[in-house]
Amino acid sequence: MTSRGAGKQVRKSAAERRGEIVAAAARVGLQEGLECVTRQRIADGLGVQPGLIHHYFPVVEELVAEAFTSATAAELDGLLPSTAAPERVGGDALRTLQRFFTLISGAEFDDISKLWINARHLSRYRPVLRDQVVSQELRWCHRIEQIIAEGVGERSFRCDDPWAAAVRILAVVDGAGAYINTSADQRMAPLADLARRIAEAELGLPADGLRSP
Amino acid sequence: MTSRGAGKQVRKSAAERRGEIVAAAARVGLQEGLECVTRQRIADGLGVQPGLIHHYFPVVEELVAEAFTSATAAELDGLLPSTAAPERVGGDALRTLQRFFTLISGAEFDDISKLWINARHLSRYRPVLRDQVVSQELRWCHRIEQIIAEGVGERSFRCDDPWAAAVRILAVVDGAGAYINTSADQRMAPLADLARRIAEAELGLPADGLRSP
DNA sequence: GATGCTATTGGCTTTGCTGCCAATTGAGTA
DNA sequence: TACTCAATTGGCAGCAAAGCCAATAGCATC
């Protein structure tokens, strides 16, 4: 039903159309899964013909990969604003992490968990996607590492190896999110604060030191 | 090339043939991925016609689900022999877990990690598979819980809530295995002993208490 | 207003998987 | 040996996706 009908074709600049396509693909990938990112599905969503998608992305896998990157990059900035981001002021590495652990506990994070599982599995067969997934995984890690390093500088955290700590914290986050499509319900309680608790241990914080006030 | 040719049809008992099919499907699912479990692929592997697969599994998804269950159930018994298993003697909960953490560090565990990711993602679209995945996830959890409880009885472990501990330990195991298709190489070192260390903490053991002698 | 560029259309073919089924044939039984 | 039943064959059609492309039609420029 999205802007159905028309019939009259709307001609846009290549950059704008391309952006639209990637955005639509990212939305579909996030909500319905990356295997639903097909020429037909994206074309329908935009009210254009499938051929147009092929014009911008002759190889569908490249669109899938870009959709994934678009979705996760945006999400990362929402969950963990970079040090350079305008909304971040100095001296709040602690608060940034507190906010992070609150956000990933919310139901809004479920789609992201599903997307990561989706992408990590699909990477087994799709090298182009795989490269993007690896790249994004490392971006997320580096972002955490950066915040940890900042917090160590501010004397909020105590940590010898911010990179290793970041890798471990994210692994636990991913582990706790791994059951989102299956037995998540049966595991709720024991996993509720696991990632936060591990992070507190990694960063030399007292219990609940990363819980939002 | 597997028993190619023939041409002469070989007639087996329904139970035997069915077992062959599931075994072949489990092998394909484990090594190539569950989406490679198709009528054609399995028939080729067994040197029969695709129609025969349909005879035993009119709905392919049911074969996929059974293949998954077959593979993971066998693996569970290999990694964590049940208390009732013949090779387990009394008083070795500790040794069983030590062995477990050694085994999951080996490269042989990679295919299992891939299979779990595969199945957890596919469960998003396939309800029949999903039920089996949930069931197996809980089986793995219960097996660990059982061993923890046994170890607590033997005074090897200290743990108030074996179920919660089992859930958390498996979550970390899954988290550390989540990158097997993507950035596993870049994360090796920090994740090497993460699951074992977390388990030691959960079970009130000293550092390296679960490392194999 | 005419022209040229290119975004966009609306098909095409190939491929692979699913669900289905009538005919055949092998093996155990009378 | 002949019979019977079920395992097995070897096809069928439907569908959805990918990759491809010639023709069409907006928009900018002259």
- Name the poorly predicted regions of chain A: 1-5
> C-alpha Rg of chain A, in Å?
20 Å
Order of helices and strands of chain A: HHHHHHHHHH
Largest pleated sheet of chain A: none
Mean pLDDT of chain A: 94
The total count of strands of chain A amounts to: 0
Assembly status = homodimer
Largest interface: A-B, 42 and 41 residues
User: Which CATH class of the domain at 61-202 in chain A?
Assistant: Mainly Alpha
Question: Helix/strand/pairing class of chain A, anyone?
Answer: mainly alpha
Gap between N and C termini of chain A: 44 Å
Q: Count of helical segments of chain A? A: 10
Under the CATH scheme, the architecture of the domain at 61-202 in chain A is: Orthogonal Bundle
Structure description:
The structure is a homodimer of 213-residue chains. By secondary structure, chain A is an all-alpha fold. The first copy, chain A, has a domain at 61-202: Tetracycline Repressor, domain 2 (Orthogonal Bundle), CATH 1.10.357. Helices cover 64% and strands 0% of the residues of chain A. Chain A is built from ten helices and no strands. In chain A, helix 1 (14-31) crosses helix 2, helix 2 crosses helix 3 (50-56) and helix 7 crosses helix 8 (162-177). The N and C termini of chain A lie far apart (44 Å). Chains A and B meet through helix 6, helix 7, helix 8 and helix 9 of A and helix 6, helix 7, helix 8 and helix 9 of B. Chain A binds a DNA duplex (30 and 30 nucleotides) through residues 8-14, 17, 38-40, 48-52, 54-55, 58-60.
